[in-house]
Amino acid sequence: MTPTPSLSEVVNTGTKTQALEAIRDNLAQRLERASDNEAAAIARQLVAAIEAVDRVPTGKASPVDEISDRRESRRAEAARSRRPTV
What are the boundaries of each domain within the chain? Predict the structure, then answer.
């Protein structure tokens, strides 16, 4: 079984998504062990980390983007077919 990389290793060598997820996981663990005085600050950081992970593009196009791309392709094809040949 390979050891889990440290937070600093993931942040230094991983992708942005991996780094943010490692930070999120670390904050979640810290929140579980936090005193009452520390919990609110860690919870705010955890929420910010979760939101940052959610904002990272996944590389997948949204359904709206896919529809827009198909529409643009159809328009381009229609424009090409209307051009007179010389």
Answer: 7-82
